[in-house]
Amino acid sequence: MLIKELTELNGVSGNEDEVRKFIKAEAEKYADSITEDSMGNLICYKKGVSSKYRVMLSAHMDEVGFMVTGYDDGLIKFASIGGIDERILPGKRVLVGEKRIPGVIGSKPIHLQEKIERGNNIKQKNMYIDIGAEKKEEAEKLAPLGEYIAFHSVYTEFGDGCIKAKALDDRIGCAILLEILKETYRFDLYVCFTVQEEIGLRGAGIAAFRVKPDIAIVVEGTTCSDVPGVREHEYSTVMGQGAALTIMDRTSYPNKKLVDFMYNTAKNKNIPVQYKQTTTGGNDAGKIQLSREGVVVASVSVPCRYIHSPVSVMNRRDYESCLSLVKAVLDEFSSNENLIESFKA
Amino acid sequence: MFDLLKKLTGIVGVSGNEEEIREAIIEEIKDCVDEIKVDTLGNLIAVKKGKGKKIMVATHMDEIGIMVTYIDDKGFLRFSAIGGVSRYDSIGQRVKFKNGVVGAVYYEEKLDDMKNLQLSKMYIDIGAKSKEEAQKMVNIGDVACFVGDAVLQGDTVISKALDNRSGCAVAVKAIKDLKKTDNEIYFVFTVQEEVGLRGARTAAFSLKPDIAIAVDITMTGDTPESHPMEVKCGGGPAIKIKDRSVLCHPEVRKLLEESAKRINIPYQLEILEAGGSDPGSIHLTAGGIPSGAISIPVRYVHSPVETASMSDINNAAKLLVEAICKY
Amino acid sequence: MDYINILKDLSTYPGVSGREDKLCGHIAKMFEKYCDSVEIDDFYNVIGIKKGKSASGRKIMVTAHLDEIGLMVKSIDKKGFVTVSNVGGVDSKILLAQEVIIHGKKEIYGIIGAKPPHLLTPEEMKKAVKMEDLTIDTGLSAEEVRENVSVGDIVTFKVDPFELQNSRFSSKSLDNRAGVAALLDIMENLTLLNHNDDVWFVATVQEEVGLRGANIAAYNIDPDLAIVIDVCHGQIPGAPKESVFPLGKGPAVAVGPNLHRKYTKKMIELAKEENIPYQIDVEPGDTGTEAWAVQVSREGIPTLLVSIPLKYMHTVIETLSIDDIKNTGRLIARFISMTGNEMEEVLC
Predict the structure, then answer these.
(1) What stretches of B155-301 show up as alpha helix (H) in DSSP?
(2) In chain C, which end has fewer C-beta atoms inside a 10 angstrom radius, N or C?
(3) How far is CA A4 from its chain centroid?
(4) How far is Cα C98 from Cα C134, in angstroms, rounded to an integer?
């Protein structure tokens, strides 16, 4: 299990180098060939026994983060990359650039806030990253315009099987796919580690165009809102209750037969499984489904509370459910390749 | 034509769940075309073979609806919208599941201001007394459409799902009335239009036609205090100029205008300021496919009381036949 | 290059998105002077090919969109007043008291009016005027309007270009005819420089309505590298400094996930070496330009974005510095001349 290693790497959308390098080194042990395309997607190919079908698995390497946009003396102005709730930003620690220069997100302390400011959330435009630089020149040298910035968060295990880390969305998917890559199947397997999911599902479309899969399964970290103040029917997933299958979201309507098949496979093998109950959000499946003449897709996810923050939380048991389910489904495809054809309308 | 329309509008065929409507259409056309295929996403492709131009006719067969996402202890259902469902239009409506279960759509009584109405504050009552009882009737992920049986009154038809079963009816009629032509015509009954013009894209990619003509519906500007729009019910089929997803190709627009003039049917020019349509994804596929559309004027779009004129629908079918056979 | 006259000509020539057929023929003629071959595709993209020295077949695509925002006739009322729909991002607030041409059966001059201020309530005075409340007054009878104007006809702004101080130039549609002028400038520069790769210059259509022409061109051309030229916001008072660029300080080279990092770095290094002024445009996500569509075409295309600073974007007084166009042309031409041998190492 590589969750600690993977989540402590920085890979903000568009700058996935660290993650790619790590995954490539791991994947090389098992894959027959690895292609890196112009945007930086890693496509790991594992030849099958029969090679009649092409199965694509995909997890995205990128995470949400920030980018340097300007300076206020030695302080750094920044923009978000991907969807980040600006309410969580004040008082967070970040790492700037490849050299991982430490910085903190500063804003006006409560004592200095006007009365009206106290009742309102602090706007991101009124925050800055302080790396300790005094002058603009110093800041500019260490953190040039366009430099990437990632959340800082130390992988921590706590509670009953819980894990806190940043970037669980979707390093958890990457961790699962690296496990899957160890096995050999009857079909040709393309394990794709994609880029730039968080800024518009950018990498997956071109990867799918290249791979031309018959079927694709996206493995994700997804929202989990089983917390106080939320009514049960608005929970998207429940932590600890197993792999979450997407019925529909904003970007795709996964293949119903495949989703049913996965759900039943889980039930038959006693693997905890749940449906993702809300239909908001989206993921790489949206782009893959519409590639070329159309692709049979499904998404399976590990529930992550406080997603897109440096303190995302998941449960190890859900990781295990998700891994077991993907494995079980691939085994079924392997023992009966005709299944793959049967999902097409 | 009304009988066909009544049959097609009566079927539950919410986006992503087009199985029954597809079967019904196959039943109607299977003896009139050279080949019938269903692709990966579920698009129905009916081919009239020929050696001339390759023409794609796209009519989406899906409709808006709802999906069950949660069942509470007392047997009430919570749901998500599939496609552009109006919260306000939904209140007090009936929905119907494929297995015949009917439910009433309502909202939580504690809601004090209708402006705060959200789908998460609405539910469906199927009369179940408990979660267990409800689960015997429906499952999470099941879909339902709104209820609104087709009614004919003079030249006016009122029904749910005129968007876009009226377009499907036009295509079916055109298939039956096809004139002699060398053109190879692909009648594509597309899926998942209401959730993002999805089926049309993958179908267009595999067919790579010379041109594409969609038959869909458009809104009108002929109701009390409506936004300015020249299209009206009964004014003839509309030839699309633009909507949010496409600026129709001048060649296709010309083909449609000239065809309408040649067979002497009334037509209108359509500028739709809200919404997109299948040509939006078709024209950007596989290096660009010149696309246009015939639109049937429909009032109260996406409600269970969509209202159109039969003469517009009949003329749309004539226009389509003329255009695809004479191109 | 006679920048002023080329810009005057290009910026006043009508070419609203979706109705670029005439303008594209005009631009094709300009391309013919420099290119080995020029073609116009099904959607009116103008494609000029300039062959390189090597026979490698490597293709560099350079795009600038030729379309402009505008209006389209939506309906004609009983008295002959014309209401319009926007094509592309038109700010209805700039339309009041604007002079326009309706391109109907013949060109018809008109003025955009609305309910006068003394009849508005104080509440109405505060709110932005809505497009549907604006009407074009042609001074003609309803019959005459209906005879010559139909739904779907294009409406363009009537504008006289201005030459301002310090080689600043003001006109409509400089977004992105300035980019088209830069394409011509690159072509001219390349006649004096050697280049290995074939260069495909594309003046694209329908950018303002959704990057559509570039999407189609990129798929069909399938280049090895793409450079997109567009405009970015010029510095004006009150705008956040991070998102605007002073005029006359050179083109803005974009950095961010939408752009290929190593090629971009190479271009910036080149600008430094050659003393070509440039600015850095930080783009944390969607650049809102053709680069966004081109990058994810087919199996992915390495893409760069170079922007010309432009004040008052999407108005009839768009203003830029001629020097920025010149430097855009120089920088990109020099960059293209390096591709082939020198550039191979970039990707390693």
Answers:
(1) 162-177, 198-207, 250-262, 278-282
(2) C
(3) 14
(4) 11
Q: pLDDT tens digit string along A246-299?
A: 999 999 999 999 999 999 999 999 999 999 988 888 999 999 999 999 999 999
- Within 8 A of A287 by CB-CB distance, chain B residues are none
**B288 to C152: CB separation less than 8 angstroms, yes or no:** no
Q: C331, C276 in Cβ contact below 8 A?
A: yes
Q: Which residue of B241, B272, B282 is the best one to mutate when testing the C interface, meaning the one whose CB has the most C CBs within 10 A?
A: B241
Whole-structure pTM value: 0.94
Active site residues of C: 207
- Choose, out of C215, C233, C242, C346, the residue to mutate when testing the contact with A (most A CBs < 10 Å): C242
Quickly name the fold that domain C3-68+172-346 has. Answer: Aminopeptidase (3.40.630)
Interface B-C: count of C-beta contacts within 8 A: 60
- The residues facing A36 across adjacent strands are A42
Whether residue A170 has a cis bond before it, omega within 30° of 0:
yes
Note whether B230 contacts C: Cβ–Cβ < 8 A.
yes
Instruction: Produce one character per residue of A228-248: b if its CB has 16 or more CB atoms within 10 Å, e if not.
Output: eeeeebebbbbbbbbbbbbbb
List of domains in chain A: 3-63+166-342 (3.40.630.10), 65-151 (2.40.30.40)
Can you tell me the distance from the alpha carbon of B76 to that of B123, in angstroms, rounded to the nearest whole number? 7
Q: Determine contact: C300 vs chain A, CB below 8 A.
A: yes
Query: Do β-strands A312-315 and A162-165 pair in parallel, antiparallel, or remain unpaired?
Result: antiparallel
Contacts of A200 in chain C (CB under 8 A): 285-286
Q: Which of C103, C134, C216 to mutate to test the interface with B (most CBs of B within 10 A)?
A: C216
Nearest to B162 by CA among B323, B324, B1: B1
Domain boundaries in chain C?
A: 3-68+172-346, 70-157
pLDDT digits (tens, 9 = 90+) for C213-238: 999 999 999 999 999 999 999 999 98
ipTM above 0.85, yes or no: yes
Among residues A136, A59, A149, which one has the least CA distance to residue A102?
Answer: A149
How far apart are the two ends of chain C, measured CA to CA in Å? 37
How do residues B110-137 score in pLDDT, each as one tens digit?
888 888 899 999 999 999 999 999 999 9
Pick the CATH number of C70-157 from 1.10.238.10, 2.40.30.10, 2.40.30.40, 2.40.50.100: 2.40.30.40
Residues of A within 8 A of C284 (CB-CB) are 66-67, 69, 79-81, 199
Asked if A65 contacts A13 with a C-beta cutoff of 8 angstroms, the reply is yes
The pLDDT of residue C37? 98
DSSP states of A275-324: EE-------THHHHHTSTT--EEEEEEEEEBTTTSTTEEEEHHHHHHHHH
User: In whole angstroms, how far apart are CA A191 and each of A41, A195, B180?
Assistant: 10, 13, 50
**Residue from A18, A147, A197, A320 carrying the catalytic annotation:** A197
